[in-house]
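Escalated from tier 1: shikimate-3-phosphate holo job.
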Amino acid sequence: MKVFLIGFMGCGKSTKAKQLAARLECPVIDLDAVIVAQEEKTIAEYFEAYGEASFRELESRTLKTYPYPDICVVATGGGLPCFFDNMEWMNENGKTVYLHMEPSMLVSRLHNRQKRPLIKDFDDEQLLAFIEKKLAERDPFYTKAQLIINAFDLDAETLEERLE
Ligand code: S3P
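Tier 2 regenerated the structure:
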């Protein structure tokens, strides 16, 4: 089983992916980290050098060509499910879990904005407006996930139980 964790920036995908992988005793794959290692650039540097459209193609290609082990937990970038047929591809190739979180909670968790090119210049008020708008656009994609979980206060044990 491959588990794809999806959701907005700051909802805790990377942390939850690590915790779940530890419980399942399987590898964890963070697709943003795969791109950073492969390109030898941070995501911010990649956006700066080649722009968002190029990043979307690269993350989609990475999603579909990564040599996944049979059992693994995959943390995806926040925008990945909303481009090309990535959401359908994940639904066909694994179990998809949407970690849902309210915009105000996301704002309070997104401290390190510099490393996220889409939000790097925003103060809290601007960020809240941005998240509300983006979530409205992205929710139709995110909610195609097979499992939708309220990410607030979610522990890895509960996540594992819900996957069964
Ligand atoms: C993005 C989310 C980021 C990263 C890039 C774009 C997005 O990943 O892929 O900055 O469009 O929401 P995280 O969700 O891991 O921060």
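The helical segments are 13-24, 31-39, 43-50, 52-65, 86-93, 103-109, 124-142, 156-163.
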